[in-house]
Amino acid sequence: MPLSGQTTPGGPPLLGIDVGGTNIKAAVVDAGGVVRGHGSVPTEQELGPGAGLDRIEAAANAALEDAGVGLWDVAAVGLATPGPMNLKAGTLLCPSNLPGWQNWAIREAVEARFSKPTTLQNDANAAAYGEYWSGAGRDADSLVLWTLGTGIGCGIILRDAVIEGEHSHGSECGHIIIDCRPDARVHPGTGMRGTLEAYCGARGVIARARDALNVDRGQSAMHERLAGGAKLTPKLICEVAAEGDELALGILTETAQLLGVGTVSILHTIDPDCVLLAGAMTFGGPGTTTGDLFLDTLRLEVKRRAFPTVAEHLDVSFAGLGADAGVVGAAGCARRAFAG
Amino acid sequence: MPLSGQTTPGGPPLLGIDVGGTNIKAAVVDAGGVVRGHGSVPTEQELGPGAGLDRIEAAANAALEDAGVGLWDVAAVGLATPGPMNLKAGTLLCPSNLPGWQNWAIREAVEARFSKPTTLQNDANAAAYGEYWSGAGRDADSLVLWTLGTGIGCGIILRDAVIEGEHSHGSECGHIIIDCRPDARVHPGTGMRGTLEAYCGARGVIARARDALNVDRGQSAMHERLAGGAKLTPKLICEVAAEGDELALGILTETAQLLGVGTVSILHTIDPDCVLLAGAMTFGGPGTTTGDLFLDTLRLEVKRRAFPTVAEHLDVSFAGLGADAGVVGAAGCARRAFAG
């Protein structure tokens, strides 16, 4: 959807850039939060910050070309990256997905390269802001977005503000504790015991499935697939759940219930309008039988455990922007800071 | 400390009113957050809203007289009451401590009676705002206050804003879930399973102590005191802990650790500067051996479980305003709304 060099009625477009460990995605986003052009290049973070800046520019140029606008049309640039970072300083610290970019003052570097005011935001927070601005949460005054994948990303938006925290560790709700007992699961990455991610991150789901398989020695569809050489992955669990395998359906249900426990803790802290689900670990996501079952089970668990007043008025849904949430949200953060 | 009819340099004083199930406390608070006069009368909520308004006025008049100022000197009135309430509408809903005041539009009634702009705030939130404004959190940009008693009150302040929630249920962190398992403790009041209050509210502490006594059939000091006719109360647990009784010390330690679990979940959601402890259930509180042990154990648990970046820069301390936190915070909320 080229802009033909014109600005939209709501103001000039923004450039949103979402840096991942594998790819850098860029988008030209209009003032209404609609993507007008996409670009994507491999991150190649191992080449270091200098090359990284070139890759970011290449992604941006591709998006500008796709949108049919020039950099001069753009009001500001919004960056989203994985943490940990120092949001106030605009620097990356030691992101595990970007080891080649450690301690890089990325905001300043991008600002200098594009000569545009630039914001830096955590990628999970940016995705939440994107959904808030123009996605499934656009009618909400506050929302929580869960991005379920290898890790459990979270972003919380309260009345147009991102909960960033004093040390850039706000909205890190994948690391809230849902099981206080001494024998709770330990997260293999963080070493933290009993956290939501230890149970519902990809590795936690696989570990729980393995435990269930060890207990249940029957001949489930999952046993058969594994005996046939299949690897125990979230995708496999989802597939056999869709075939009606009870063991896999039990894992799906338990995952949704545990996510419900964590969600209720956030509801009783923030009391938002809306909770959204995104990411690969949503058991197929919207429009699939297993995805809908996952969402419905989560809704039920929230209703069962939360204060009625909180649960009654809460919208629990799938997110709406898909893979664009990060670039849209990054652009939205730039708009709020410089062009809102 | 009479004001002698003069306003302080920072602006006119405020009237803070903290309504409890037993007493209504009022205070004249200067623009710097210092109490200049106190008043207190029995709530007698069973007499209904009409009498309640008279009681509120009586408490206010006592505070005005104590401060040596007139109502005409006061810029605004801040009310704090127990929930549940509708903060936007300024009405009480069905507070269990104020059954005689159900569905009362208290903010409007007080505003009309005093002819002063009036705010309504949840009492736990008001106490947190008081500590933030002029108490132990006055140097913090954000804080969490735990008020430990029969229930576990919580208030969260983020950059001068109270987290009220969309349905007046923000900062209700006594009801976050710390134990997701099916056999977790059930809160005797709310019926909720695995919540922080189910473990660390007064009744939860007593229930855990009773369980420990049933398991440990030895002759602890606690066994002896109970055999001698003493009642199992938090006060008794605290007393025998101070005498070095291991069973009681175990309860103290476990309570602090479980509160630590809940605290870490909030830290990974909000990432504040400061966490404060107040209330009767702090095992003696500041200046006592058991109170200091309780605080130190909480600090240790937070350090053990939270992200290092979050825990490293966090101040975990006792609150500073004692029983004045509610009236000071209520006054502070009025100041922020009308005279800030």
Written account of the structure:
Two copies of one chain form a homodimer. In chain A, strand 2 and strand 3 form a beta hairpin. Chain A folds into two domains: 136 residues, ATPase, nucleotide binding domain (Nucleotidyltransferase, domain 5, 2-Layer Sandwich); 182 residues, ATPase, nucleotide binding domain (Nucleotidyltransferase, domain 5), CATH 3.30.420. Chain A is built from eleven helices and twelve strands. In chain A, the strands form three sheets. In chain A, strands 3-2-1-4-7 form a five-stranded mixed β-sheet, with helices on both faces. In chain A, 40% of the residues lie in helices and 18% in strands. Chain A is of the alpha/beta class and 340 residues long. Chains A and B meet through helix 8 of A and helix 8 of B.
What is the CATH C-level name of the largest domain in chain A?
A: Alpha Beta
Regions with little confidence, pLDDT below 50 for 5+ residues of chain A: 1-8
Structural class of chain A: alpha/beta
SS element count, helices of chain A: 11
Strands side by side in the biggest sheet of chain A: 3-2-1-4-7
- CATH architecture level-2 label of the largest domain in chain A: 2-Layer Sandwich
Short synopsis of the structure:
Chains A, B: Its EC number is 2.7.1.2. The structure is a homodimer of 340-residue chains. The first copy, chain A, is α/β, with parallel strands linked by helices and 340 residues long.
